[in-house]
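Methods, example record. To illustrate the input and output format used throughout this study, we show the complete record for Flavin prenyltransferase UbiX. The sequence lines were provided to the predictor; the line carrying structure tokens was produced by it.
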Amino acid sequence: MSASRETTVQAWSSSPQAHLPRLVVGISGATGIAYGVRILELARKAGVQTHLIVTPAGQQTRAHETGLSAADLAAMADVAYRPADVGAAIASGSFRTAGMIVAPCSIRTLSAIAYSNGDNLLTRAADVTLKERRRLVLMVRETPLTLGHLRAMTAVTESGGIVMPPVPAFYLRPESVDDIVAHTAGRALELLGIDVPDQPRWGE
Ligand SMILES: Cc1cc2nc3c(=O)[nH]c(=O)nc-3n(C[C@H](O)[C@H](O)[C@H](O)COP(=O)(O)O)c2cc1C
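The corresponding predicted structure is encoded as:
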């Protein structure tokens, strides 16, 4: 077992789902697919099993923003699902996971999750995550924000979700876009108790 995997198992052992290092990752059609890609990479390094759903709009941003094919992206996860497959394992609360990250999260997907509209497998899996009182992190990406966007963020927060816009921390003096993406992706994973080796920290 590698050192990073050992660290991860320790991190999980304090969680109620210690024996189940499974993470659902949703990629929707906001700009910033690099965050979702980096989360898949870091989760794999940490020995966490990933379950991926990419919306059709997410596939559009993949084509605009990366050199990855749909198959390349799917291969970065342990299991990749079709968004229309609302009967997949992750659509049920009986399939135990440690939680879900949506990175990036479009306003459309945020709104669907906020109002329990399980219209595709991503939004259904997010609703399941909330109803099972598991951790849900939404990397919402839009600016500026309307009152409607803010209300949807409030509704998700009231249901127990975590709204985490991908906002860079400049005090760490990032030297590249990659540094910024890696730091934010690492913070999202740490919200689920997943240990990220080499994560830059203030004061360390
Ligand atoms: C290149 C590109 C960038 C986009 N960026 C954003 C964005 O940052 N935030 C957002 O809410 N929507 C953005 N959109 C629009 C969404 O893709 C669109 O609302 C879509 O219906 C979202 O669907 P989904 O939530 O099912 O992925 C973008 C679309 C494209 C093609």
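Annotations derived from this record:
The beta strands are 22-27, 49-54, 79-81, 99-105, 135-140, 162-163.
The two ends are 27 Å apart (CA to CA).
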